[in-house]
Design a protein that fits this description.
With 341 residues, the protein is mainly alpha-helical. The chain folds into two domains: 135 residues, Peroxidase, domain 1; 136 residues, Orthogonal Bundle (Peroxidase, domain 2). Helices cover 47% and strands 2% of the residues. The chain has 14 helices and two strands, in the order αααααααααβαβαααα. It has a two-stranded antiparallel ribbon. The longest helix has 17 residues. It is globular. This is Peroxidase. It catalyses: 2 a phenolic donor + H2O2 = 2 a phenolic radical donor + 2 H2O. It holds the Pfam family peroxidase. Belongs to the peroxidase family. Classical plant (class III) peroxidase subfamily.
C-alpha cells in the first residue's frame, strides 16, 4: 500500500494552500473554451449608451411609417446575415469591385429598405452624446429585426446584445449557406442544424414569411414549368396557383414582387401555417413543411395556437442571434455600417 503524504494534505488544507488551489482553478477556467454567445447579455449598453433601444426603435418606427417594406426587408436582412458568416453585419459591407457578400446572386433580391433601416438607426444612435461609435451595426440590426416584428403585430422580446461587426464580406462566403425556395425539408434541416437550430426552430423561423414578399421568378416554375410546360405543382392549391398566374404572367417585370401570405400580408401572425394547411405555401420550401409528417405536426400546432408560435419564434430568433457572434479581437464597432474602419 502506498504511503500517504500527510504533510501535503495539511499544506493544501491551510489558508495558503487553499489560495494556491483557487489561483490554479482560476487559471484553468480562463483556459476553458466557451461559446461566444455567452458574452451576449441583456442591457449590454447600460453604461455606454443606456437609451440605445429606444433610439433604435424610434428610427425604425420612422422608417416603417414611410414604407411597410421596412418590416420584411429588415427581418430578411437579419436572417441572411446570420446564416452566412454569423450575426456580424457582414451583409452590410460594400466593396468597390462588387465582391461583397450582398453582391452574391442569393442576396441581390434583398430590398434596400432593410439596409437603409439599419443605416438610419446607426445615424440616430451616433447623434446622441456619449453613444457615438459605441454600438455595433450587428446589434442595431438585431434590435431593428425585433422592432419590425412588434410593429407588424408580432411579439416583442428582449434582445441579447454585445456583438461586434465582422471585417470580412465576400461573395464566395455565401456559398450554399442560404435556404433556397426549391429546397426540400431534409436540405433545410441540414442547413439549420449546422447552426444548432432544431426542426422546431426551422418551422418557427419560416413563419416570418407571414410578412414576406417574393419576386415572381423565385416560384414561377411551380405554376408554369413543373415537370412540363403546362403542369402545375400538385402540392399547390389550384385556385391559389391560378391567382399566382394572374399576378405573375410569363413575361412579368422581374422587379414585381408579391406577398408570401395571401391572407394577412401586413400582420405578423400564424396565418402562414394556416395557408400551408390549404396548400398555399408560396415556395416549395414552405409547402415542404406541411408535406413531411414530422414537421406537419409542428405546423398544425402553430396554426391552431398563435401563442405557441410566438413563443417558439422568440426562442428560435434568439438562438439564431447567437450564431457566429464576433467578440474581442474578432471584430469591431464600425463607424459606417457599409465600411470597415
Amino acid at each position: 500500500m502506498p504511503m500517504i503524504n500527510t504533510k501535503k494534505i495539511q499544506s493544501m488544507s491551510s489558508p495558503r494552500g487553499v489560495l494556491v488551489s483557487l489561483f490554479f482553478l482560476f487559471l484553468l477556467l480562463l483556459l476553458l473554451p466557451c461559446t461566444t454567445y455567452a458574452k451576449l447579455r441583456l442591457h449590454y449598453y447600460h453604461n455606454t449608451c443606456p437609451n440605445v433601444e429606444s433610439i433604435v426603435r424610434a428610427a425604425v418606427e420612422k422608417k416603417f411609417r414611410q414604407t411597410f417594406v421596412t418590416a420584411p426587408a429588415t427581418l430578411r436582412l437579419f436572417f441572411h446575415d446570420c446564416f452566412v458568416r454569423g450575426c456580424d453585419a457582414s451583409i452590410m459591407l460594400s466593396s468597390r469591385k462588387n465582391t461583397a457578400e450582398k453582391e452574391n446572386s442569393d442576396n441581390l433580391s434583398l430590398a434596400g429598405d432593410g439596409f437603409d433601416t439599419v443605416i438610419k438607426a446607426k445615424e440616430a444612435v451616433d447623434s446622441v452624446s456619449g453613444c457615438r461609435n459605441k454600438v455595433s451595426c450587428a446589434d442595431i440590426l438585431a434590435m431593428a429585426a425585433r422592432d419590425v416584428i412588434a410593429l407588424t403585430g408580432g411579439p416583442s422580446y428582449s434582445v441579447e446584445l454585445g456583438r461586434l461587426d465582422g471585417r470580412i464580406s465576400t461573395k464566395a462566403s455565401v456559398g450554399n449557406h442560404l435556404p433556397h425556395p426549391d429546397h426540400r425539408l431534409n436540405q433545410l434541416k441540414t442547413m439549420f442544424a449546422s447552426h444548432g437550430l432544431t426542426l422546431t426552430h426551422l418551422v418557427a423561423l419560416s413563419g416570418a414569411h407571414t410578412i414576406g414578399f417574393s419576386h415572381c421568378s423565385r416560384f414561377s416554375k411551380r405554376v408554369y414549368n413543373f415537370q412540363s410546360k403546362t403542369r402545375i405543382d400538385p402540392t399547390l392549391n389550384l385556385a391559389y396557383a391560378k391567382q399566382l398566374k394572374q399576378l405573375c404572367p410569363r413575361n412579368v417585370d422581374p422587379r414585381i414582387a408579391i406577398n408570401m401570405d395571401p391572407t394577412t400580408p401586413h400582420t405578423f401572425d400564424n396565418a402562414y401555417f394556416k395557408n400551408l394547411q390549404q396548400g398555399k405555401g408560396l415556395f416549395t420550401s414552405d409547402q415542404a413543411l406541411f408535406i413531411d409528417p414530422t414537421s406537419r405536426k409542428i405546423v398544425n400546432r402553430f396554426a391552431s395556437n398563435s401563442t405557441a408560435f410566438e413563443h417558439a419564434f422568440v426562442a428560435a430568433i434568439t438562438k439564431l442571434g447567437r450564431v457566429g457572434v464576433k467578440t474581442g479581437n474578432e471584430g469591431e464597432i464600425r463607424h459606417d455600417c457599409t465600411l470597415v474602419n
